[in-house]
Design a protein that fits this description.
16 strands, 4-stranded parallel sheet, globular, about 20% strand, 8-stranded mixed sheet, Rossmann fold, about 25% helix, 2 domains, alpha/beta
Length: about 325
């Protein structure tokens, strides 16, 4: 559906997937149902967006983002790419739940081949809540997608008056509207009631420069995350390999470390041809090669700055290109 507005305004496609931004309370202020409202209802609640852009809207899915899956990722990537191929379209806004927004954003950052803006937006409070944050977030997301300086910055996330790079963003709080943080390289910018202030550009490859593609339609390789803790055994690592995992991401303690028993199991997995990436459960910092663990000897890959969930996304896509640990490592230094 096309929303009427001045023909001189930029044209933006809004792709909706559901999430809390489209949620409705079911038990007062203590419970809600995600994806209760359609994209039409969301747009109708923020008529001011008509001052920013001409909107096309499409309901791609209606789920809470805890139910996001590969099939929906593929559909979303395809619809985003098709929209951006339209010469008359300035950019895309995607409404999405916050639980897995960082993973979807990073996935799209690696597979959408366009310099045009792609902006994900969600909310921490459902649409019917007191002081819902969704309407202003949506207004600001449209403003960012319609802005000329958003071009070439990769996939962005807008929330709580902040603009984040897909690679840098992480959800850090279960309920607060300021849940998103830039974990390594800082904010992409700020947006205050549609007034935009961009900061530095991303430094890693993304979107139009990416080597990854979903052409062919084959399912992405299975990659599992193993969370390290005091006394981690080998059982979960062995079970993941037996279940067919072609890759493992270790959410390690500290600098991506594992105790001796789990380390031995991970080394055996790598020797058998499973790609093993060491990441960290800490939520920040760089996992470097060959500090406390001899990555060269074990054939491990380090996640560099990526948290475990984003390391999984990159490893799944990387394994569609190669199984060589050295080549996969270079990808983690590149993207």
């Amino acid at each position: 559906m096309v929303r009427s507005a001045s023909p001189t305004l930029p044209r933006i496609r809004v792709l909706a997937t559901g999430g809390t931004i489209a949620g409705a309370e079911t038990k007062g202020a203590r419970g809600y149902k995600a994806a209760a409202f359609s994209v039409d209802a969301l747009i109708a609640a923020v008529p001011q967006v008509g001052e920013l852009a001409r909107l096309d809207v499409e309901q791609v899915a209606a789920i809470g983002s805890q139910d996001m899956d590969e099939a929906t990722w593929r559909k979303l990537a395809a619809r985003t790419s098709a929209a951006l191929a339209d010469a008359d379209l300035a950019g895309v806004v995607i409404t999405h739940g916050t639980d897995t927004m960082e993973e979807t954003a990073f996935f799209l950052n690696l597979v959408v081949r366009s310099e045009k803006p792609v902006v994900l937006v969600g909310a921490m409070r459902p649409a019917t809540a007191i002081s819902a944050d969704g309407p202003m977030n949506l207004f600001n997301a449209v403003a960012v997608a319609a802005h000329a300086e958003a071009h070439g910055r990769g996939v962005l996330v807008v929330a709580n008056d902040e603009i984040h790079f897909a690679r840098e963003i992480a959800k850090t709080n279960t309920t607060q509207v300021g849940t998103f943080r830039a974990t390594a390289r800082g904010l992409a910018g700020l947006v205050n009631a549609g007034r935009i202030h961009f900061y530095s550009a991303p430094v890693r490859k993304h979107t139009a420069q990416s080597e990854f593609s979903l052409d062919g339609g084959s399912a992405l390789p299975r990659v599992d995350i193993i969370y390290a803790h005091v006394g981690t055994g080998r059982e979960l690592i062995d079970a993941a390999v037996k279940a067919g995992a072609r890759g493992l991401v270790i959410a390690g303690v500290g600098d991506g470390n594992l105790g001796a028993t789990a380390l031995a199991a991970a080394a055996e997995a790598a020797k058998s041809g499973v790609a093993v990436v060491r990441s960290s459960r800490t939520g920040g910092g760089v996992v470097e090669r060959n500090i406390e663990i001899d990555d060269d000897r074990h054939g491990f890959i380090v996640a560099d700055e990526l948290n475990p969930q984003k390391a999984r996304v990159l490893l799944m896509l990387g394994l569609t290109r190669t199984r060589d640990a050295r080549e996969l490592q270079e990808m983690f230094f590149t993207y």
